[in-house]
User: Fold this.
Amino acid sequence: NSTNLLVENILLKNSPYWTFLANDIANLEIRYTDVDARRRSDIHYHDLSEITAFNTDGFDVAGTNVWIHDCNIWNDDDCIAVKEQTSSSIHSSCSENMLFERINASGVGLT
Assistant:
């Protein structure tokens, strides 16, 4: 649970599980940040034989007022996953008001 958080200009590499989780967040901006959670960084394409790094989500977010932009995400699972708020969340009762733009996403997709 955080408020007014800025994440910028970092590389998150080789995460074995969800790379970045923000839970019960209010006013989050992530910019110019790269996620590289590929099994093999020398391969620059996806086919069924290369999608083997499961649960390597890029950004998992739950909260309100989230802006993720100008990022690159290379993984084998969800690039961005919007999660539900829990009953104990203090910032909002649901995940809402989120904008994702100018993102190079090469994983399974956005959920």
